[in-house]
Write a structure and sequence with these properties.
Elements (H helix, E strand, L loop, with lengths): L2 H16 L12 H19 L4 H15 L23 H6 L4 H18 L2 H10 L6 H18 L2 H16 L8 H16 L8 H9 L8 H26 L19 H18 L1 H4 L3 H4 L1 H9 L5 H5 L3 H19 L2 H8 L7 H18 L2 H18 L1 H4 L3 H14 L9 H7 L6 H28 L4
Helix pairs in contact: 1-2, 2-3, 3-17, 5-10, 5-15, 5-17, 6-7, 7-8, 7-9, 7-11, 8-9, 8-23, 9-11, 9-23, 10-17, 10-20, 10-22, 11-24, 12-15, 17-20, 18-20, 19-20, 19-22, 20-22, 22-24
């Protein structure tokens, strides 16, 4: 633990907390909203400086909300409830319920699918089958690896997908000479494809799940609808990343012969995994037809794999619970900002109306990609999306561009396309840890992909507006 960073991260929000509410230049700010600002600043500093693990910061957020702004908080902190300027206390049950939010359940279902696929070697066998059509050329094989990585990343954790695919990549790298630039290209291809592929579904990456929290009512986007516009974006960006890596790191080898020695398991439990995996994904994709929420569908693999014994207690303990807690903290922070009225008052106090709506969208996406380059993508989404959702709802000039749906999608996608540094994403860090990639190689290719992806994002948003999707 870095005590210097911890001291700074605690001192600044503490100073904000003790200053008079009247000193904060936000119109109609209440005492409860003042406390939420202090919690928000603390969360921001803790997520950026990381004096403690980022999932621990999320638990700290929930705890502070329970003790400072809930209807079951410390007695003297709610003694002025009901008086003018005090504000609205949040239900302690609602705060605690963020740990079992539908978004959390959606991700939990994805984790169960990933765990079962790994345990019964569905992932490796699919990779073996899917790689076969790509032949022995390094260029086509790299494209094959990127496609497989992106597909898995749509339904599994980007980090878990990268770990699996880097293991599959090991025998491929062994066939290259040590000075072949293609080694760098292949090592970068896996994390880049994982980052890009995660954009493709609402469960592909945590920022997408956070976005779904705010895409409700008129702004609601179903699982299938998300894929309908995200998959083409992913495909085009994936092709560009592939071409760029081949241009920057041209392979010397002309042919590779790869064998992955594995076969599909035929036990009853393995067959149950295959059927459940396919059925769950189809139910997610066609939710508009059967009318069952994707959150409810996510319980299918959880129930099937536990009841059948496919996943046992040890398997469940190995799930990425820290990721779920991280998301829960972001949901709790967003709920506090929204339900206390802080986000609306914040938007009202900033003269956004003086800016061209296009400039607002550009700045929002630029801030998102810059923040996500240096800190957790999920933390960036947790911090920005509550404000963006309120901005889209309250600013009339943004309505012409698509309102809250447009700016939420823009910021969410921007979080995922930040991949220029080893610290930008866990997949990047895992590839960098191989010791075969230089920081400059990742920066050069990651920045170019990020810039192109941002330009493509503006085109995508324009198309979605043209067809009245947003």
């Amino acid at each position: 633990m870095n005590f210097k960073k911890l001291f700074i991260a605690i001192l600044i929000p503490l100073l904000v907390l003790i200053i008079p509410t009247e000193w904060i230049p936000i119109h109609n700010l209440t005492l409860i909203e003042h406390r939420v600002i202090a919690i928000f600043i603390l969360a921001t500093l803790f997520w950026i400086l990381e004096p403690i693990p980022i999932f621990a910061t999320s638990m700290l957020i929930i705890t502070l909300e329970l003790f400072m702004i809930s209807d079951n908080s410390i007695a003297f902190l709610r003694s002025g409830a009901g008086t003018e300027g005090f504000g609205t206390l949040l239900s302690y049950k609602a705060i605690m319920a963020t740990l079992a939010s539908p978004i959390i359940i959606l991700f939990l279902g994805g984790f169960f699918l990933a765990a079962a696929a790994t345990k019964y070697r569905l992932d490796v066998n699919l990779a073996r089958v899917l790689l076969k059509p790509f032949g022995s050329s390094p260029k086509t094989m790299m494209m094959g690896l990127m496609i497989i990585t992106a597909i898995f990343s749509m339904f599994m954790s980007n980090t878990a997908t990268t770990a699996m695919m880097l293991a599959i990549l090991a025998p491929v790298l062994a066939m290259f000479e040590r000075d072949d630039p293609a080694r760098v290209a292949f090592l970068l291809a896996i994390p880049f494809a994982a980052n890009i592929g995660g954009i493709g579904t609402p469960i592909g990456t945590p920022p997408n799940a956070v976005a779904m929290k705010y895409l409700t009512g008129d702004a609601f986007i179903s699982f299938g609808a998300w894929m309908a516009f995200a998959i083409p974006y992913v495909v085009i960006l994936l092709i560009f990343a592939w071409l760029l890596l081949l241009l920057l790191f041209k392979p010397k080898a002309t042919e590779l012969k790869l064998e992955i020695k594995s076969s599909f398991m035929r036990s009853p439990k393995a067959l149950t995994v295959y059927i459940t995996f396919a059925f769950t994904i189809l139910m997610w994709i066609f939710s508009d037809l059967h009318g069952i929420s994707s959150y409810v569908v996510a319980m299918i693999p959880v129930a099937v794999f536990l009841v059948s014994g496919i996943l046992n207690a040890e398997d469940v303990r190995k799930l990425s619970w820290d990721v779920l807690w991280l998301i829960a903290g972001g949901i709790a922070l967003g709920m506090a900002m929204e339900n206390t009225g802080l986000s609306s008052h914040l938007i009202e106090s900033i003269p956004f109306g003086q800016f061209n709506p296009l400039i607002i969208v550009f700045m929002a996406t630029l801030v998102a990609i810059l923040m996500a380059t240096f800190m957790s993508h999920t933390a960036t989404a947790n911090l920005l999306l509550p404000v963006m959702a309120a901005l889209g709802t309250n600013l009339e000039s943004l309505a012409a561009l698509g309102g809250s749906k447009m700016i939420i999608l823009g910021v969410t996608f921007s979080c995922s396309i930040a991949m220029s540094l080893p610290i930008s994403t866990p997949p990047n860090a895992m590839a960098y840890a191989s010791g075969q990639i230089q920081n400059k190689d990742m920066m050069r290719s990651g920045i170019i992909i990020g810039v192109v992806a941002l330009g493509m994002l503006y085109i995508l948003l324009s198309i979605l507006k043209t067809i009245d999707f947003i």
